[in-house]
Hints:
Elements: E1 3-6, H1 12-28, E2 47-53, E3 59-67, E4 72-80, H2 89-103, E5 108-114, H3 118-126, E6 130-131, E7 144-150, H4 155-158
Parallel strand pairs: 4-5
Antiparallel strand pairs: 1-2, 2-3, 3-4, 5-7, 6-7
Pfam family, one: Acetyltransf_1
InterPro entries: Acyl_CoA_acyltransferase, Bact_Acetyltransf, GNAT_dom
Protein name: GNAT family N-acetyltransferase
Amino acid sequence: MYSITSESPAHPDITTLIAALDDYQSALYPAESNHLLDLTGLPDGKLIMMVIRDRQLNAIGCGAVVLNADGSGEMKRVYIDPTHRGQKLGEKLLAALEDEALSRSCHTLRLETGIKQLAAVRLYERCGYQMCEAFPPYGPDPLSLFMEKTLVADLRLAVL
């Protein structure tokens, strides 16, 4: 049994997971194609940070959404420990992040991922994300893919 809860990006369990993610991505891509945002400097109201824990309360995955003033958000730092993959935890984590983003008036989520992270791309596609053009602050990058998902076309419908 796994639980998904909100957590501070400065929590030691989160920093450990993000360090593992950074090591993984740094081995795949050059520094200029690694967009490793430090989440600890963001104000609480701009950030959704979640952690997945196993039965023993070990942190085995994390993910974040950075909320923008225009009602969009960017998915960041999604990671599941390799020993826990294949159990649909990524889907559950994305759903939890999307639900929380929607509750905070976020209508669209976007993300950047690398071309070598095929399992991540398949996860995002299964969860309804579609390819799109690069969005600010990114420019085109041959090693990056950009995706987005509309959570609700009209936020007034979310309250019905």
